[in-house]
Amino acid sequence: MGLKSLPKGSLLKYIEIRQLCLMNFKVYISRFACFFILTCSWFCSSAHDIYFCGEKIPLDDKLVIDKLMNIIKNQMRYVNIAALRRNPYLPQVERWLKATNLPQDFKYLAIVESGFKKDIASDAGARGFWQLMPKTAIEWNLTVNDYVDERTDFDKSTYAACKLLANYYLYIRKNFGISSWVLTAAAYNNGIGNIKNAISKQGRNYFSMKLNPETAAYVYKIIAVKELFENPELYMKDFGYNVFNPLPPENIESFIEANNDDTGTAEFSTMKVDVNEADGQHPEELKEGTPIISEPVTQAPQGRIKYVSAKVTGKYKKIADGDLISIILEDDLQVQNRFTAKGSIIQGRAWIIDDKVLVDLGYDHKVSLLDLNENKGVPLQKLKNRERVKLKVTENLE
User: Which residues pair with 121 in a beta bridge?
Assistant: First the structure.
């Protein structure tokens, strides 16, 4: 029976039902589209933002983020962050970098090179805190002979390394018009001549260059150590145990075997660090015409920072890695497209690092748990019910 043969009342009823179905379908599609857009927007906005010396790492490139995560996973087996944080050379390197006006992120280059061990030597002949080759060390006024090797002198080798980094940075900027500390770091590993040729033939993007395996992984390793230093709680949950504790688990060999992956990158056996000596001296006054670079160095954009008041809620007498920590908000928490009202409870996994509890609240780099002095983490003795804390919320300017 065709529509034309239907009684008039039935035909009108059919048309009304059809129109109603179409309207409902359009509403459904509209709501789904809004949900999809908001979901995509939140997903994109919650992605990692990682900087090295002020340069944003292109984590929109899947190859880059996969390689970085693999290298972070490998570095976690070897980097004893707890020992490195207490290492007496770390604050000295920071002072040298500040005095020579170089980015602070280069302290992580020193860790990758030697783990602050002065007698480390490579098969190629590099030696010392900054793994300088003999010829390079001599070019930068260090004495290297059968009797004296100033590459093992902390102050002299650090100053030479700072001059070398500054020279490479200025050379790249002068010859290619690029202000890039990423390429500077790559040149430190592979030599300025090789990086000059790579830029000439392949362009300015280190992350898309075809380089030798060691140099291709070098900047990733520095960034990996930086991330493990500055945001350890974001990486703890995926790797089975707290590698930041001074002692590894008894079954470390089985853990490494179970988590082994082929990244095509060399593993640094020098990353296990236990430095007790402190023969370097503080560079209170630098000589020989410092600062090396008189202009301000590029720093990572801080974004819009705000603080949200909160309190710990619950009892935590025997806190262990991976336990849930509950935080009750005293202010509204707005993180881009995610809104949580005042009075709500948010939770995150706890990780004990250097007698502090760091918590991954699930907002990536954008929300960090601080104590009232605005230091990251909460001291173990202060992790108790109704203890006041702060949440640092960082919104990108981009």
Answer: 127
List, as one string, the DSSP characters of 4-29.
GGS-HHHHHHHHHHHHHHHHHHHHHH
Q: Is the pTM of this model over 0.70?
A: yes
Q: How far is CA 212 from the centre of its chain?
A: 23
- Element holding 75 (H helix, E strand): helix 62-75
Tokens, residue 230: 């500055």
Distance of CA 46 to the CA centre of its chain: 15
In the chain, what's the furthest Cα-to-Cα distance? Answer: 112
Q: What is the per-residue pLDDT across 307-357, written as a single tens digit (0 to 9) for each? A: 999 999 999 988 888 899 999 999 999 988 889 999 999 999 998 887 889
Comparing 397 with 231, which gets the higher pLDDT? Answer: 231
Closest Cα partner for 389 from 321, 302, 318, 331?
331
Q: For residues 37 and 59, what is the distance between their CA atoms, to the nearest angstrom?
A: 21
CB 124 within 8 A of CB 117: no
User: pLDDT for 102-127, tens place per residue?
Assistant: 999 999 999 999 999 888 888 889 99
Q: How far apart are CA 90 and CA 70, in angstroms?
A: 26
Give the Cα separation of 202 and 215 in Å (integer).
15
Q: Report the residue count for the chain.
A: 398
Q: Report the alpha-carbon angle 154-106-118, nearest 5.
A: 25
CB atoms within 10 A of CB 324: 11
Residue 92 Cα to chain centre, angstroms: 22
CA dihedral of residues 332, 336, 337, 343 (deg, nearest 10): -10
Burial class (CB within 10 angstroms; exposed 0-12, middle 13-18, buried 19+) of 209? middle
Looking only at the bridges linking them, the beta strands covering 55-56 and 345-353 are unpaired
134 SS3 class: helix
**CB contact at 8 A, 151 and 137:** yes
Strands 324-329 and 378-379: unpaired
CA 252 distance to own-chain centroid:
24
Whether 3 and 11 have beta carbons less than 8 Å apart is answered as: yes
Cα–Cα distance between 272 and 134 in angstroms, integer?
A: 25
Q: Do 370 and 361 contact (CB within 8 A), yes or no?
A: no
